[in-house]
Amino acid sequence: KQEVTQIPAALSVPEGENLVLNCSFTDSAIYNLQWFRQDPGKGLTSLLLIQSSQREQTSGRLNASLDKSSGRSTLYIAASQPGDSATYLCAVRGAGGSYIPTFGRGTSLIVHP
Amino acid sequence: NAGVMQNPRHLVRRRGQEARLRCSPMKGHSHVYWYRQLPEEGLKFMVYLQKENIIDESGMPKERFSAEFPKEGPSILRIQQVVRGDSAAYFCASSQRQLEADTQYFGPGTRLTVL
């Protein structure tokens, strides 16, 4: 059974810092991995989707890497801003095109001015 | 070009009452997924539906919970005789095709509080 762990559970940083959020998964036979952002009281917004054959994806100040063999993914946020404050979730989908993703519990990020 | 819509956004029920949660997928999407997020826990898959069909309900409790996605109208998640442990945020997501390379589009969620 796939298990997804996100470390740290919470993070508070001053504005401008570069930061790394971690996601690890127990079963390396994955189809893809997706990073989401969840704002308080709102739904999830997809940030980056990495297929199992890819090593990384970039979007603006965000960069996500995937090391399937070690069961890890990182989300790198450059030059953090207060508007980045949210909970970041990673979700892993199993190989074979399974439509059921396994979510981590998320990292709650606060970027203070 | 509306996204996934869910209503109500907040729902308060007393123990024993019924809760009905509605989800309208994005235009052109025929696949709907329901998730539950309990306090301090990650999102857990509940059920996957296509129009008029339940494809996978392996994550849904066997009793009191049911889901449908009729030919016309929104998908409905129904919880009968609610208990305090049902208090959670319920999210709906939709996709155009079965989730493969597609991303999921999530609604804002319905926050159910059972008194």
* Quaternary structure type: heterodimer
C-alpha geometry of chain B? globular
Number of strands of chain A: 11
- Mean pLDDT reading of chain A: 92
Largest sheet of chain A: 6 strands, mixed
Structural class of chain B: mainly beta
Largest interface, with Cβ-Cβ < 8 Å? A-B, 24 and 28 residues
Low-confidence stretches of chain B: none
How many H/I helical runs of chain A? 0
The helical percent of chain B reads: under 10%
What is the CA-based Rg of chain A, rounded? 13 Å
Extended strand count of chain B? 11
Instruction: Indicate the percent of residues in helices of chain A.
Output: under 10%
What are the segments of chain A in which pLDDT stays under 50 over at least 5 consecutive residues? none
The helix/strand order of chain B is: EEEEEEEEEEE
What is the overall shape of chain A? Answer: globular
**Radius of gyration computed on alpha carbons of chain B:** 13 Å
Strand content of chain A: over 45%
End-to-end Cα distance of chain B, whole Å, is 36 Å
- Average pLDDT level of chain B: 91
Give me a quick take on this structure.
The complex is a heterodimer of chains A (113) and B (115). Chain A is an all-beta fold.
Descriptive overview:
The complex is a heterodimer of chains A (113) and B (115). Chain A has 113 residues and is mainly β. Chain A has no helices and 11 strands. In chain A, the strands form 2 sheets. In chain A, strands 2, 4, 5, 9, 10 and 11 form a 6-stranded mixed beta sheet that branches. A 5-stranded antiparallel beta sheet of chain A has the order 1-3-8-7-6, with no helix packed on it. In chain A, strand 6 (56-59) and strand 7 (62-67) form a beta hairpin. The N and C termini of chain A lie far apart (41 Å). The model of chain A has no long low-confidence stretch (mean pLDDT 92). Chain B is an all-beta fold and 115 residues long. In chain B, the strands form 2 sheets. In chain B, strands 2, 4, 5, 6, 9, 10 and 11 form a 7-stranded mixed beta sheet that branches. Chain B starts with a strand and ends with a strand. The relative contact order of chain B is 0.33. The mean pLDDT of chain B is 91. Classes of the chains: A mainly beta (113), B mainly beta (115). The A-B interface holds A 4, 31-32, 34, 36, 41-46, 49, 51, 89, 91, 93, 97, 99-101, 103-106 and B 4, 6, 31, 33, 40-45, 48, 56, 58-59, 91, 93, 98-101, 103-109, 111.
